[in-house]
Structures are given as structure tokens and as C-alpha cells.
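Batch job 17 of 40 flagged for manual review because the log was empty.
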Amino acid sequence: MKIAGVQMDVALMDLDRNLAHMVSKLRETTDKGAKLAVFPECALSGYCFSSLDEAQPYAQPIPGPATERMRAACAELGCYAIFGMLEIDGSRIFNAAVLVGPAGVIGSYRKVHLPYLGVDMFTSYGDRPFAVHDAGEIRVGMNVCYDASFPEAARSLALLGADLIALPTNWPPGAECTAASVINARALENAVYYIAVNRVGTEREYEFIGRSKIADTNGQTLAETHTTGEEIIYADIDPARSRRKHIIRVPGKHEIDRLADRRPEMYGLLVRPHELKSPGRP
């Protein structure tokens, strides 16, 4: 299955422009044979809001108007799309990613790990379990941006059977090492494909760094962007590889299984609640 990562600029507070831009890029990726296109974090709304009140008018429910328009495009083109948006649920706003196909919303994800930056200073912590969804021939799990820095998030999706982990992101300056190394590590340690798609352009005082990437199940880079401009990257992925966790390098002498070889009985410290507080949060 061919997938695409659409590294694009985003206009803050301009839902119609951003959605039209995504649909246009979706046509381009399907023309090149891609069945799934991944767009950046907050691609619908922009990211650098200065308050909850400022962000709230640009949040939508899931399903909602934006996902319906993307559904219509996917139905016309016979493809799937993952994009970032602000989701409103009652009085709460979540930094969300949504998977849409020809029949509508297949699944959505609310960002679990929140940095003290941009709209994440005002959004609510994700409150739903990690989940994996079918997108045609592959099983897809979603994380968002800062989630990639927590290996537990990707490992949870691998345990749920993800072939591909999609990471819409808004990497600003300071995230260069994440782009260079973390994506490949998450792919390698879980034997999954991993696609991270960043935005570009400047929003308020932040200039986003690009550096979108697709890594294979061995942690090797399949495709990556090389500029801070708009680019599309493509890769063919084979779900049989991501489902073959038992890797035999030398039969009877060198075999590994990154899931079966775990020792969860030794990891209790990882799930012990902590009392540390994020900056500026209650």
C-alpha cells in the first residue's frame, strides 16, 4: 500500500483555506497512487493560539463539517486521510487527529501528552484509550507530536496490532533531534512503519522546521523531506513485515521478537501514578 505525507503550510484561524488546501493535496497524492495521506497536527485550524477563548471558535466536533467534507473527497478519490484538528466536546477542546475514509470517520485520537506550548497550553488531556483502526489493507494507530517522545504511546499501538503509526506534528525549533532520531527509534523498537508529518511556515513567533519522515520496520528511513517548504513524501509499505514480529537473523542462533521478549512484570514503575506537575497546569 502506498502512503503519502503532506508537509504543508497552515493559515492560523482559516478553516476553509486549510481544508481546501488539504483536499487539493489529497487529489495530488491519489494521482500518484497513494491510498492514505497524512497531514500535519492542527492542519485545519493552526496551532499558535494565545488563549482558550481564541481557539474555541475554530474547534469542531468529530464527526463534523470538516470531516464530512474530507469524507466526500475520500469517497470521490477512493482513499483515506489523517489530519490534525481541534475537537470540541462540550466545554472542552482536544488536540485531535482523525482518520477519514470514503464512508466517513473511521477513528479519532485525542493527544495524551501535552507540552506547554501553543494551543496545548489550553487543551484538555486526551481521555480515550489508544486504538488501532482499519484503513483498507493496513491497521493504523495515531499519535500526535509530543506523544512520540513517550515510547509507551507507540508501544501501546504496536501491542494493539498497528501496522503503521501516524504522527501529525508541529515541530518547532528545538525538535530537530526528534525528527532525526526518535521516529526511526519508535519504528525499530516496535517493528512497525512510522510516518511523521510536520508543517512548515511561520505562525506568530514560531517557524516550523519540516523534516517529515517515513521509517520502515527496521528503523530505516524510507522517505524524508529536505527543505522547510511544502513537500510530499511517499513510501510503499508491506503490512506482512509489520506483522512478522519474530525476526530470524540466524536460525537457532540469533532470533528476536520485540513484543514476545518484553518483561512487563518488571515495568511496574512505568505505570505508577506520579505527582509531578506540568508548567502552568493544575
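Reviewer: the log was empty due to a logging misconfiguration, but the result itself is present. The domain at 2-271 is CATH 3.60.110.10 (Nitrilase/N-carbamoyl-D-aminoacid amidohydrolase). Unflagging and moving on to job 18.
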